Amino acid sequence: MKIDTQEIVFKNKKEIQIRMTDLDPFGHVNNGVIYSYYDVGRLHYLTELGETVEWESLDKVIVHTACDFLESIRFHDSIRVESKIIGIGNKSVKLIQRIIDINTGKIKSVCYSVMSGYDRATDSSKVISSEFKRKVEKYEGLGG
Fold first, then answer.
1. Cβ of 122: how many Cβ atoms within 10 Å?
2. What's the fold here for domain 12-139?
3. pTM as predicted
4. pLDDT digits (tens, 9 = 90+) for 39-51
């Protein structure tokens, strides 16, 4: 996949605390755990937008994710997840995220994901609200 994020401006940033239990036998953060870091970043983004982040009311679900693991993350690294919505369709939201080393600026990992609007009552997709679109446009400084 390899997405170049060098030119993308990320407004949303969330520092991540690495725990001992995040490590694999080689002393690296396990790739599966890295996906959980991206979950933290997505929830932080939604919170910053002013969305209600409660499990009973979330109306978006991940339907696709792809990740490039560029450099190992180790226990003593200082890292953060940076997130940006790069597109909103009728029923989907495209998000790019990356994990960077705060001290060196090196990109450790890049993740592309798609969230779909979700209707719990019918267990099916639903349209992304115009209110959500306006919040993203305002947050990202896109006008609109």
1. 8
2. Thiol Ester Dehydrase; Chain A (3.10.129)
3. 0.92
4. 999 999 999 998 8
